[in-house]
Specification:
Elements: H1 4-17, H2 25-73, H3 86-89, E1 96-100, E2 107-111, H4 112-117, E3 119-121, E4 128-130
Antiparallel strand pairs: 1-2, 3-4
Helix pairs in contact: 1-2
């Protein structure tokens, strides 16, 4: 399949092969239109190259972000999709609590220790989230003063 620049070059060759009178008004218009098409084709080609570069960089950033999320959250998103031995990277037995940030709506996962601390910061927007302990054990009695 020909690129846009190749198609414009082909059209220019066809027009030159027709031996039009160079001083004819129609010939001047056709050549001007071909010059504009050539400029547009070069611009499209440059945009394609830039888009490929941006896409490549975005893919690299996405991979880096996935690595950072795994390190930051220190767990796999879903142990069923994980290629590792869950005992090595995931604490699948630990209870995780899903909380929606009232400020930004981000779903955040906290372990019991953070919930018992009574507050945490939303990693998405920085909002301080406060938790009320509703258990009937002695773990939170000192927090109610």
């Amino acid at each position: 399949m020909m690129t846009v620049t190749e198609k414009v070059a082909y059209l220019k060759g066809l027009v030159e092969g027709l031996d039009f009178d160079k001083d004819d008004k129609e010939t001047k218009v056709i050549k001007a239109v071909l010059d504009v098409l050539e400029d547009l084709a070069l611009t499209v080609s440059d945009l394609d190259d830039e888009m490929a570069l941006v896409t490549e960089q975005l893919d690299a950033v996405d991979e880096d972000l996935a690595d950072l999320e795994e390190i930051f959250y220190d767990e796999c998103d879903d142990c069923d999709d994980c290629d590792c031995d869950c005992d090595d990277c995931c604490d699948c037995d630990e209870d995780m609590y899903e909380v929606e940030c009232p400020n930004c709506g981000e779903m955040i996962y906290f372990d019991e220790e953070i919930i018992l601390d009574g507050q945490a910061e939303c990693p998405a927007c920085g909002e301080t989230l406060e938790f009320d302990c509703e258990c009937e054990c002695d773990c939170c009695e000192g927090d109610e003063e």
